[in-house]
């Protein structure tokens, strides 16, 4: 499944990402971790005693985490050395088979013909080969015009952060490279500041089912170690506790967390675009935390909610204002400049659990909230407790995704577990239905507009199936009628014919449901078109 996604600005990625090479110190640490895991497994076989069900589950979780780390260590060692163990076929020297003397043999031997292993050795060939390698090298280059999408991808075999490249001109979408994750990812955001020296870069902050937030360098392929880790388990302190004494009876393993760490899963993240080193996180431990990412330090912990905090977002213009939504059915607007003893949180109570919160980029006082009942409400931050300005009965099931275009005033997209994505016009103080689409990737968990002028009407969608779907919403006639998209009906008449041949799978069998469609058509979209194979690059999934 695709549990979360985020756009990355054009021109921020390296044309050719670096190849990760672990330092000798990192290799030594990984080898030690692998040896320690092997020793623990041996001890477990010799000393294992009966455990309660809870203790057994906790021990299994710790063992799984250690196994993942050991697997990463083995992979890194293999990448560095190119070998694992002596091959049983080594005696046959198959690696140097082509280098053995003796010349060409077979049907060409003894005929007087000159045979060369490659055209480079043939003196009569002066033009270089136009081989596949050069073409592949060109394909792996990230061009400044490429739009990138970060997608949290989970399967039974593991979890990855997939870096998609979307070429709008060629209408192609493929995975350029991926990064292996330790736990199920729940949220992701792009940011450009994570290094201690303050130098800009390209990073992805990821919240998972674990207590830590991992910040990965997107300009490094096959990296085994995050660029920064916020919170999570304190392994050094855990080793100290472990070394204080040995007990014959095994007890429930306990994690020693870093100071300021979340104590439960991280459900939401928001990067501060004005204070670029700052990141806010929402957690199932009922808290909101403010982080200094380069220093890997928790600056503040907010406790204004009484249940799991599901979503949050910094105000796009007011640097100190943060919006958060919780399972306690309240939405809070917080001024983080207050002291810890005097957090000023203006709250609004809703009748259902909150799924998403979102500031209106075109009205600094308005924010939107989606719920597990499928409703979307708009509120005025200056009138907390006064009730919503408008209410949309958007979906028949939970509204799990919500995105508003920062370039097209009033254009709102909502996504749901009812397998649809709908478009709304929020201009003029009211909400008007525009169009909808049944998505071929099943239940929809997330959606996001590209906030760049070249792709202002491009929406990325992720859901239950392990694929990212791109919807150019300007392909809907209803959208073109309401907004000046700069696109003509004739243009899309040609594109509709070729849509099935595109590498981007078009959902809903190639049909839009616009505001001229009946309710019956909207609720019963046509079956999804067959999914085309996505183009893969080295390291892609």
Q: Can you walk me through this structure?
A:
- The chain contains seven helices and 31 strands.
- With 541 residues, the chain is α+β, with helices and mostly antiparallel strands.
- The strands form eight sheets. Strands 1-3-4-5-31 form a five-stranded mixed sheet, with no helix packed on it. Strands 23-24-25-26-30 form a five-stranded antiparallel sheet. A four-stranded antiparallel sheet has the order 6-7-8-10, with no helix packed on it.
Largest sheet: 5 strands, mixed
Number of helices: 7
Average predicted local confidence, pLDDT: 77
Numbering strands along the chain, what is their spatial order in the largest sheet? 1-3-4-5-31
Number of DSSP strand runs: 31
Radius of gyration, in angstroms, nearest whole number: 27 Å
- Low-confidence regions: 47-51, 80-86, 103-111, 496-513, 515-541
What is the share of helical residues? 10-25%
Give the termini separation. Answer: 12 Å
Strand content: 25-35%
**How would the global form be characterised?**
globular
Which structural class fits the helix and strand makeup?
alpha+beta
């Amino acid at each position: 499944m695709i549990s979360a996604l985020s756009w990355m600005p054009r021109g921020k990625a390296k044309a050719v990402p670096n190849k990760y090479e672990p330092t000798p110190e990192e290799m030594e640490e990984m080898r030690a971790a692998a040896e320690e895991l092997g020793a623990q497994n041996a001890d477990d076989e010799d000393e294992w005693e009966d455990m309660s069900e809870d203790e057994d589950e906790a021990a299994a979780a710790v063992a799984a985490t250690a196994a993942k780390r050991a697997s990463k260590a083995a992979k890194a060692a293999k990448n560095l050395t190119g070998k694992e163990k002596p091959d049983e076929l080594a005696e046959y020297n198959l690696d140097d088979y082509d280098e053995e003397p003796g010349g060409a043999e077979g049907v060409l031997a003894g005929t007087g013909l000159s045979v060369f292993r490659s055209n480079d050795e043939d003196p009569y060939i002066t033009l270089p080969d136009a081989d596949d390698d050069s073409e592949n090298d060109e394909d792996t280059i990230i061009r400044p015009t490429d739009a990138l999408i970060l997608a949290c991808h989970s399967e039974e075999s593991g979890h990855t952060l997939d870096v998609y490249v979307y070429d709008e001109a060629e209408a192609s979408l493929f995975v350029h490279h991926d990064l292996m994750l330790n736990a199920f990812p729940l949220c992701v955001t792009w940011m450009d500041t994570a290094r201690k020296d303050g130098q800009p870069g390209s990073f992805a902050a990821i919240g998972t089912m674990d207590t830590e937030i991992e910040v990965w360098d997107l300009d490094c392929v096959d990296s085994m170690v995050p660029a920064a880790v916020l919170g999570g388990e304190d392994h050094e302190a855990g080793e100290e506790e472990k070394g204080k004494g040995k007990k014959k009876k095994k007890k429930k393993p306990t994690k020693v967390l870093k100071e300021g760490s979340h104590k439960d899963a991280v459900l939401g993240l928001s990067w501060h675009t004005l204070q670029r080193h700052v990141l806010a996180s929402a957690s199932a431990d009922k808290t909101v935390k403010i982080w200094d990412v380069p220093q890997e330090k928790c600056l503040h912990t907010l406790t204004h909610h009484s249940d799991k905090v599901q979503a949050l977002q910094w105000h796009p213009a007011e640097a100190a204002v943060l919006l958060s939504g919780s399972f306690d059915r309240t939405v809070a607007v917080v001024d983080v400049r207050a002291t810890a003893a005097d957090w000023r949180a203006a709250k609004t109570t809703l009748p259902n659990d909150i799924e998403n919160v979102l500031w209106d980029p075109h009205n600094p006082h308005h924010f939107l909230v989606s719920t597990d009942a499928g409703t979307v409400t708009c509120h005025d931050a200056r009138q907390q407790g006064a009730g919503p300005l408008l209410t949309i009965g958007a979906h028949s099931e939970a509204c799990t995704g919500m995105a508003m275009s920062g370039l097209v005033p009033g254009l709102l997209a909502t996504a749901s577990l009812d397998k649809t994505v709908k478009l709304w016009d929020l201009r003029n103080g009211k909400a008007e239905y525009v169009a909808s689409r049944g998505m071929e990737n099943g239940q929809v968990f997330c959606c996001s507009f590209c906030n760049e002028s070249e792709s202002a009407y491009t929406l990325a969608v992720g859901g239950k199936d392990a694929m990212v779907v791109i919807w150019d919403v300007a392909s809907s006639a209803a959208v073109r009628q309401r907004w000046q998209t700069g696109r003509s009906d004739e243009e899309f008449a040609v594109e509709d014919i070729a849509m099935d041949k595109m590498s981007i799978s078009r959902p809903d069998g190639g049909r839009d449901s616009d505001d001229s469609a009946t309710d019956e058509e909207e609720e019963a979209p046509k079956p999804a078109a067959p999914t085309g194979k996505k183009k893969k690059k080295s390291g892609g999934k």
